[in-house]
Request: fold
Amino acid sequence: MKPFRRETGVLAPMPRSNVDTDQIIPKQFLKRIERTGFGPALFFDWRYDGDGAEWADFVLNREPFRQASVLVGGRNFGCGSSREHAVWALQDFGFRAVIAPSFADIFRGNSGKAGLLTVALPEAACAQLADMAEEAPGLNVTVDLEACEVVAGGQSWSFEVDAFTRHCLLEGLDDIALTLRHEADITAFEARRPIWFPDSRRSLVAP
Reply:
């Protein structure tokens, strides 16, 4: 997982409440088993018409928002199903952080485990950031996880992240990497484990 310390990039405004995971990545795109390749399908029903042509007025179809790396949304962002693909689609498009007044719990958890930072700011602050991005397209925002601060347009807002998630994001540790930090202990345990214990490394099915 790519560590997250500080991201400075274009801010894209999407001040909609209750943006659900089925809108972030519709169900017909969940057949892939890789974590990549979902970017073109991000917000598919909002980005394209029935013939696959882009809606010119959708924010991510407009420059410079196509290049955005930080998204500011509305309340309850990421509600709906628990699909991890929603996080992967946002990342594959190029987003490294999402700012909103609140997030669905499962979406927030999936984001932290995949390296996407979710930043909860007061609703007034999110509305102000969205207005700033609309009024000055191409506005750069800095999301600093080390300082727990968002900076844009000469203003700053502090945010909180639980200590464990912050540590994992700063160090780039997903669940596998966390487990591998104990690789020496696991190897030592396997070496002294009684031979009659089940061994997951060997097939239990006779050849």
User: Anything to note?
Assistant: The beta strands are 6-14, 70-73, 97-100, 117-120, 140-144, 149-152, 155-158. The two ends are 38 Å apart (CA to CA). The longest strand covers residues 6-14.
